[in-house]
Every structure is written in C-alpha cells, then in structure tokens.
C-alpha cells in the first residue's frame, strides 16, 4: 500500500499535458483498441492459411516479451540482456506444470490458464531476485549482470539434467482445440486465438500501467534519478516494480512460445534470443508499445524473408545452410547499429515524427 | 593436497588469461567510459584470422602474429566506423551498439567458417610436467604466464614511461584541457581501442586452445568471467583487473575441480551477483560520490 503513496502525485501534472478533446477514459480507449485488434486477428485467422496462423501466433508470443522489455528499457532506463533467460523460465515452468497435470490424468484445456499463471508467477519470482540486484546497478554493470543471467540459465538446464532433461528439453502436452468448434477446426487457428487473447490482455495491462502514475514514475526515474527522488519517488522500488512487470511479460511470452512449439529446449533461449529481443525493441522505438509490435513482427518475418532471399541463389547445400542460419543475425546486427546511430527513435519514432509534421501542415492548411 | 596444488596452479594459469582480457575491458572503460560488450566477439574474429593464416602457412606463430595485428586493426575499425558515431549521452547507447556488433561479428564468422567447433592448436604441450611425483604446470601454462606478464609489463611501460601513454591518460582524464594543449583526443581514444582489442585478441588466442575449440560463441562465457573479474577489481583499476582475473581463475578452477565443470557458469553468476550487491565499485575502487 505504501508503494502507491510513495510514488509521487506531483509528477502527474508535470508529465501529463492536458489535451483538450480527449475525454474518453484511458482504460476504455485501450479496451477499444484491444477489441479492435482482437476482431482483426479473428478475421485474419480465417483468411490466412495454417502456417501463417502459426507465424502470427509466434508474433503474439514475442510481442509479450518485447512489450515488457520496452517498458523496462525505454521507460525505466534499465537495460536487460536477460529477457531470453526470463522467457526460458516461463517456458520451462509451463512445460513442467503441463507435464505434472498430464501425469495425473488432467487433460482439460482450461487448465492451460492455470499453467500460464504459474509460469508467470515463477518468472515474477526470478525477476524479483534479479530486479532487486538490478535496482542497485547502473548502465554497463546492469547489462553485465543480465548478460551473465542470459549465458547461465541455458547452461542450468544441462546441469540439472534430471528436471530439465538437458539439451533434449521437455515436451509440452497440449489439449486439442475444444470440440465445440467442430471436428475440422485447424489447430493452428486455435493456437493463434489462445496466444492473441493472452497477448492482448498483457498489452492492455501494460498500456494502462504506462499511462498510470507508475508509468510516470518510471519515466521520472529514467530521466533523472535525483530529481525523481526529490519529487518523492522511491527510485529503487520503482525500478524493481518495472523489472518485475517486465519479467512477468517475458515469462508469459516464453510460456506462449512453449505452448506453440509444444516443446522447450535450451537452444531456443540462448544469448542470441536476448539480443534479438533487444534489437526488436530498439528498432521499433524504445519505450513505445507500438514499436514493440513492429519489433515482434520483424523477429518472425526477417528469418522468413532471408530464407526466400537465399533460395533465389544457387548455392551448395552447406553454404546455403550457413548463410540461412547466419544472414538474419547479420542483418539484425547491422540494423541494430544503424538504427542506434541514425534513428534512435526507431520505426515508431520516425512514424510519429511524420504524422506530427502532417498534423501541423493540416492545421496550417485549415487556418 | 597434491590436487589442491594442481588446481591452484591451473587456476592461476586460467586467471592470467582472464586478467589479460579484463585488462582489455578496463583499458576501454578508462579511455572512453564504454564497457565493450563486443570484446569477446572481436577476440574470436582475430582467432579465426589466426586459424586461416595457420592453415595457409602451416606456422602457428605467423597465425599468432596475424591475430594480434587483426585485433589491433579491428579495434581501430570499430572505434572509427562505429563507436565514434554513437550518441554517448545515454550510457545505454554504446552498450546496445556493441551488442549489435556481437550479432554481426558472430554471424559473419558463422557464414564464413560455419557454426561448428574447429580444432584450435596449442603451440606447446598441455600435459602437466611432474615435479617430485606431483603434477604441476604444463609448458603451455608457462607460455601463458610469460605472455601475459610481457603484455602487462608492456602496458605499464607504455602508460607510465612514454609520451604517448601520458597523452592517452590525459585525453581520458581531461579531454577538453588536453585538446587545448594540443593532444589529439580522438586519436588517443582510437589508439586505446586498438590496444585493448589487441590485448583481447591475445587473450582469446591463449584461452581458446584450453576450451572446446574455435566457435563463433567460444568467448561468450569467457567474456562474462572477464567482466566479473574486471568488476571484482573495479572497472577503473588495471591492477584490480589483474587481481580480479587471478581470483576468478582460482575460483573457477576450484569449482570445476571439486564440484564439477557444469557449475562454472553458475559460480560466475553467483560471484558477480555477490560483488555487485556488496561492493559494486569493486574491491579496489576509491570511495566516490555519484555525480548529480
């Protein structure tokens, strides 16, 4: 309770310019957005083929993680290279819980909600431990610590072979789509629905958080810790909250990935995944949830694009395999560097600058 | 007792390499307030150059020299072509760009050489010599100690005894004043990057034969260990990096000797977490106030 009191009300008026003509409550606006997005996904799930459905579901899973990371890094100014590891925590917890249910003969589809909740809870616990340490650290120290987490967690799955089954990983038993949808309902469409509902819920919560006093406290801490403290914000507590919220989203994202792939293995959650997430967030525009959407799309689309690009050339199978595995990485790396140097606002920053100029022109035009 | 002695010596040899690598991190941190997260990837790239040269000429030492030159050049290129263009106002930006470099370098290495382990040759035998029935150091360990010692001495000499070392320290300590006094501050920073990257390449050449072999990700864990070493010593202190490196090396050797090699990553994480929570400035850092 004291947390809510300590986060300063004064920041409220300072950070939030009063905009005339926007009287719709924030929560309703976000819910309307989410409903709209849900309808679009629903229509798309019938228009697209199974493979595209599955890809879109993967985008949704990544979106949870990138949205969480963009809140942490963009709004609260804490760089985490450990989000791949947090996703692994969520994924492995989900796998263990689903397996435990299956062993006891519990196969009802609704139990998935419970498994997802447990996965998020487990990630929250891990995130809280890292977050408490992180709140005392700045810049490169924090990056170094989270980098260590990213390198270590996949190694743990091999060390504790008995629980996590080493490099092989675990399979995730999943219930089929509900029978009420008919016998020929494509499973990928059901997967997309599941992932989309979870992700939209996560996004609505995050969007409300960003617009709340917590979000303003995040930004105040990012911009100037001393000023934030003077304004009555408990800096360390705010940073821990940001880390925990971000970890919970990453955990949900990881759990959804496990649901989609129906298996988990350490190879999928290495350091590269953490760097991918960071890249997605930076390209989309740090601190913007809309940017996280761009980033998540890119994470799924770019490997696909490079695949079709490499198949244009005639290469020896070995060379083709090398190129296909590494070209997306190279492109991600170059984009990360170029965006950071040339357009630190990312895609969404460029877009909002563009719409900003258009709006100004439009006003000039009218007056 | 024999085993303890062996593990201690092995740990010191491991630690010497980590000390060199941590020293490279400290060099760039002192020169430009950047932790070079791409150091590991850059060192691996230099080691791959050595692999190619050795494969072409059949001489280990030509490859070794090529790795050092490649390291120096890579440092220059990274500073001039990338780091100098980055907006340094937020400390996050150089870190993110360095991570982009990691992705890029590892991907290019994977494309050229493939993502499997290549054998890395050691120039000397790695079987330990026995003194009075006790296994002690291998010739390769002695080579490691000698090389790291020479490099450390050379760095001390450059920074304390030469005019260029004085300029480098001045450029890092007070860039504006140094510029007024005619020091080429940007050039000194580039030189710092070259030196650090060269030392990193050397450390990579020394450590890779003792691990699984040459791989684009071969230095990931080494980087984390060396970063831990640098933090233990305090990022600002070169002697701290050496002590930290030796300490981390000993710890890793004891952990793998007594508890199992699988636990090494966990031990590194635990040490890093402990140091950062108890003494974030490192063991050798002077007490400072954070600038407001």
TrEMBL record, chain A:
> Which residue ranges run through the membrane?
27-48, 54-77, 108-134, 141-164, 190-210, 240-261, 267-286, 293-315, 327-351
Q: Which GO terms describe its molecular function?
A: branched-chain amino acid transmembrane transporter activity
The annotated topology with respect to the bilayer is: Multi-pass membrane protein
Source domain of life: Bacteria
Would you name any one GO CC term? plasma membrane
What subcellular locations does the record give?
A: Cell membrane
InterPro entries assigned to the protein according to its UniProt record, in alphabetical order = ABC_transp_permease, LivM-like
| Entry-linked Pfam families | BPD_transp_2
For whether the record's keyword set contains Membrane, the answer is yes
Q: Main localization of the protein?
A: membrane
Q: Which UniProt keywords apply?
A: Cell membrane, Membrane, Transmembrane, Transmembrane helix
Which protein, by its recorded name, is this?
Branched-chain amino acid transport system permease protein
Which organism does this sequence originate in? Micromonospora phaseoli
Automatic annotation (TrEMBL), chain B:
GO biological process terms on file: amino acid transport
The entry's protein name is Branched-chain amino acid transport system permease protein
What kind of membrane protein is this, topologically? Answer: Multi-pass membrane protein
List the InterPro entries.
ABC_transp_permease, BCAA_transport_permease
Q: NAD as a keyword?
A: no
Q: Which GO terms describe its cellular component?
A: plasma membrane
The UniProt entry lists the main location of this chain as membrane
Upper classification of the organism: Bacteria, Bacillati, Actinomycetota, Actinomycetes, Micromonosporales
